[in-house]
Amino acid sequence: MLVQRGWQVLSHLLSHYSKVVPNSPQYICRLASSWSGWRRRSYWRYLRRSVLGVPTPPYPRVTQTGDPVLRCHAAPVPPDQISHPDTVKVINRMVRVLRSGGCVGLSAPQLGVPLRILMLELPEKMSQAVPPDVLAAREMTPFPLKVFINPEMRVLDNRTLSFPEGCRSIHGFSAVVPRYYAVEISGLTPDGKRVTWLAKGWAARIVQHEMDHLDGVLYIDKMDPRTFTNINWTEVND
Ligand SMILES: [Zn+2]
Fold this sequence. Notes:
It is globular and about 50 Å long. Helix content is 36%, strand content 24%. The longest helix is centred in the first third of the chain and has 16 residues, at 25-40. Strands 1, 2, 3, 4, 5 and 6 form a six-stranded antiparallel β-sheet that branches. A hairpin with a 6-residue loop joins strand 3 and strand 4 (173-188). By secondary structure, the chain is of the alpha+beta class. It has helices at residues 2-15, 25-40, 43-52, 85-100, 124-128, 132-138, 202-214, 233-237, and strands at residues 105-107, 117-122, 143-166, 173-188, 194-200, 229-230. It folds into two domains: 2-52, no CATH class; 68-231, Alpha-Beta Complex (Peptide Deformylase). The structure holds zinc ion. Residues 167-169, 209, 213 line the site of zinc ion (ZN). Zinc ion (ZN) binds at residues 167-169, 209, 213. InterPro entries: Peptide_deformylase, Peptide_deformylase_sf. Keywords: Hydrolase, Metal-binding, Protein biosynthesis. Its EC number is 3.5.1.88.
């Protein structure tokens, strides 16, 4: 009864702020997202928002699943816009976020920009932190930063390898995902040159993961669902 009464009061209050029909699925969704929004914003965030205003893309951090931009089909960058300061700003921001977040790949939609830009990098230092047997099994070979604008991918070897992978846009989780063994990616560099790169093993996995982002696809769409894991579950139980 109390719950029902509480619900009626809440429903009444919120109906003042919403044109969505109460008890409809849209209403429940809005309610749930509003609640989570209210809980997340700290006083510090309120102050920062007051001073700096609403954040705009390219965000300085990776946006999370739920943001519609991650489900969009990203648009190609017009060739005459590749050297435009806005495009340069997006790429520079992507490099910063890629490196500061310890990522091996990043796409522009993950910073809120629905454009077909992706980058990959597997630094030597990062690969040294991986146990040698894992390194060998996953064929993780270091490679320098590679940026592709308007990339296209071709599968060279359609054998699939299944390994756990994660995504900064689904922070804190991982799952086993099958990926093709070898692919070819081609596209434009930031200075407008056309390049092609043959990637196999772990590099091919990163390419496929980032290419999926450009089409609004996340690894959870392709994973083995029974392997979906909160990577901190043991700490929660500790
Ligand atoms: Zn991702």
